[in-house]
Amino acid sequence: MKVTTVGIDLAKNVFQLHGVNEFGKPVLKKQLRREQMAEFFVNLPACLIGMEACGSAHHWARKLQGFGHTVKLMAPQFVKPYVKTNKNDAADAEAICEAVARPNMRFVPIKNIEQQSVLALHRVRQGFVKARTAQANQIRGLLSEFGLTIPQGIGHIANRVPELLEDASNELPGSFRLLVQRLLDHLKALDAQVDALESQIVQWHRQSEASRKLEEVPGIGPITASALVASLGDAKNFDSGRQVAAWLGLVPKQHSSGGKHNLLGISKRGDSYLRTLLIHGARSVIHRAQQKPDACSWINGVVNRRHKNVAAVALANKNARIVWALLAHGREFRADYSTVKAST
Fold first, then answer.
1. pTM of the entire structure?
2. What's the pLDDT score for residue 234?
3. Is 209 helix (H, G, I), strand (E, B) or coil?
4. What rounded mean pLDDT belongs to the chain?
5. Where are the alpha helices (DSSP H) in the chain?
6. Alpha-carbon torsion (161, 163, 166, 170), positive or negative
7. Which of 86, 193, 232, 247 has the smallest number of Cβ neighbours within 10 A?
8. What is the pLDDT of residue 89?
9. What is the Cα–Cα distance from 143 to 177, expressed in whole angstroms?
10. Rounded CA separation 229/205 (Å)
11. Beta-carbon contacts of residue 122 (< 8 Å; ≥ 6 apart)
12. Mean pLDDT of 168-180
């Protein structure tokens, strides 16, 4: 009987398949090795294929789409409730097959090769940034053991540490001076790596029309714009700007029951990297808005009523909605744009 829906439990070498027919009856339970995947699916009639959005999922989604299949990716936390028994590959594949057929399931947009390559630059750059921060903190901590303190901020490391190493009055051992100098050289190498990757990201940003369009929004620069374009892909996959804000975890988390609505802090779901970029960009806008009160009346009004952190999240939420409107409808950003209410 014809297979209409297939769930694939991805792995490094061994893939578990579970397929059902149009009536939902299991007709396929099979285990394939990596080298057998392409041969099997190229001969399988076109069907709906579901997979969890995990390692190599976008690669296999593109490959199976090339064979004529309809492929949908789902977040693992949305698949877990459909696992009936203990966890194993066969149960996971069956749960994926069940989840992908649900009409209210939320799916992850499939990224193309260019989007993945740009996001790889962002991820590696972020890794170097974290390593650079850790290295700076290690240098600061080691020097503090000898009673030498450095002001907060990574920029003070490169300015103050060489002076402390050259100062003979602080009685630092010679071996320790060589050790700190080695750490300082490593810090400079990490800083150079961050700058090089940032240059590649900015170069891609300048070649992307959509990314340059987003840069016009206050609080969004080349790094944030390129990350948003590469992550969102086709913005029409989202029904509204609020869905994008919810996807980024910038909307309140609910704990409501019995008709009583209780809104908590932001949900912090989705991509924490994008959410961090948007919030940090909003902080810079708030800082500049306080210097020019008349230029940004909306955000200054929010700051006057609420805490700066709340205002930063509110502006990040607003920018996320603006990003969706610009990408989904092909519009240009206008600072003086306002919605027109229909006359009654």
1. 0.86
2. 84
3. helix
4. 90
5. 34-42, 57-66, 76-79, 89-100, 113-144, 155-166, 174-207, 209-214, 222-232, 241-247, 272-291, 297-305, 308-329
6. negative
7. 86
8. 92
9. 10
10. 9
11. 201, 223, 226, 227, 230, 273
12. 90
φ, ψ of residue 145 in degrees (nearest 5)? -65, -20
C-alpha distances out from residue 295 to 181, 289, 310, Å: 47, 7, 20
CA distance 283 to 286: 5
Question: Exposed (0-12), middle (13-18) or buried (19+): which is 192, by Cβ within 10 Å?
Answer: exposed
Band of pLDDT at residue 252, cut at 50, 70 and 90: confident
Tokens of 21: 């027919």
CA-CA distance, 213 to 225, in Å (whole number)? Answer: 8
Q: Which two tokens stand for residue 293?
A: 């009160």
Handedness of CA 333, 338, 343, 344 (dihedral sign): positive
pLDDT bracket for residue 181 (50, 70, 90): very high
